[in-house]
Design brief:
Shape: globular
Strand content: 15-25%
Number of strands: 7
Distance between the termini: 11 Å
Radius of gyration: 16 Å
Largest sheet: 7 strands, mixed
Bound molecules: 5-O-phosphono-beta-D-ribofuranosylamine
């Protein structure tokens, strides 16, 4: 049976697009059942609509506190019968109770070779530190940001003259290969196949 994924976004949605494209393969073990954004202006919402995927917007400012925000998200995930969450550029930290509840079924992609460069601007910091390579990681989400077990990684070289932008682009190409592969692997292990 095909697993229902909820992809959480806040912006551009290029990883969402790569996941949606992978789902076109009939042998892919999952489908995107929901795209959830905390920003109504996220361009990734337009991508979801083009692919006929339901969207939900949850604006954190509209909630009294983080627990209410997380609880509302959870209810929507139940409505859409979600099996797995893929965070793809989602710029809100989810609370520990929510994360524990989805333990082993919530993934994130980060543009660094974790455990190096957790948090914001990892590409810029890798350049400032004179690294010769960088890359991207898909990992399980735990309450501490970018700290869960790494599922898969891909490397890229850092080239002379790289800027945060050129490095980000090179990493992003690898993200688009890595995330669908990592999701496939997790879904297969959850279903025992
Ligand atoms: C990606 O670089 C991802 O690694 C990071 O946020 C960015 C999201 O890009 N977590 P997009 O919205 O998928 O294009």
């Amino acid at each position: 049976m095909s697993a229902g994924i909820a992809v959480f976004i806040s912006g551009r949605g290029s990883n969402l697009l790569s996941i949606l494209e992978s789902c076109k393969d009939p042998s892919y073990p999952a489908h995107v059942a929901l795209v959830l954004s905390n920003r109504p202006d996220a361009t990734g919402l337009d991508i979801a609509k083009q692919y006929g995927v339901p969207t939900e917007v949850v604006e954190h400012a509209a909630y009294k506190n983080r627990d209410d925000f997380d609880e509302d998200i959870n209810q929507r995930l139940m409505e859409y019968k979600i099996d797995l969450i893929a965070l793809a550029g989602f710029m809100r930290v989810l609370g520990p109770a929510f994360v524990e509840q989805w333990s082993g079924r919530i993934l994130n992609i980060h543009p660094s070779l974790l455990p190096k460069y957790k948090g914001l601007n990892p590409q810029k910091r890798a350049l400032e530190n004179g690294e010769t390579q960088s890359g991207c990681s898909v990992h399980f989400v735990v309450p501490d940001v970018d700290s869960g077990a790494v599922i898969a990684q891909r490397c890229v070289p850092i080239l002379a003259g790289d800027t945060p932008e050129t490095l980000s682009e090179r990493i992003l190409e690898e993200e688009h290969i890595l995330y669908p592969q990592a999701i496939r692997r997790v879904v297969q292990s959850l279903s025992g196949s």
